[in-house]
Design brief:
With 70 residues, the protein is of the alpha+beta class. It has one helix and four strands.
C-alpha cells in the first residue's frame, strides 16, 4: 500500500542509507535530536514522504520511499 507518512531519513554523502517510519513529527524530531548527538557525519532529516508500506505481524514498516512531499 502507498501512503504519505512521517519518516526519519538518514543520508550519508547525499545518499539515503536508512529510513524509519515515525508516528508523528514530534517523535521524529525527538529521535533526530538523539541521533544527532551520536552521529557527527550523517545528515538526518524528518519529513513527510510518499512510501510503500509493508505490514509485518501487525506493524507497519517502510518498504520503499516513492518521493518526499515538499
Amino acid at each position: 500500500m502507498i501512503k504519505v507518512v512521517m519518516a526519519l531519513c538518514l543520508f550519508s554523502g547525499g545518499v539515503l542509507i536508512e529510513h524509519t517510519l515515525q508516528p508523528s513529527l514530534s517523535e521524529c524530531l525527538k529521535s533526530k535530536r538523539i541521533m544527532e548527538r551520536n552521529m557527527q557525519t550523517a545528515q538526518i532529516v524528518c519529513g513527510e514522504v510518499e512510501a510503500e508500506i509493508e505490514v509485518i505481524q501487525g506493524k507497519e514498516f517502510i518498504k520503499s520511499i516513492a518521493k518526499s512531499k515538499q
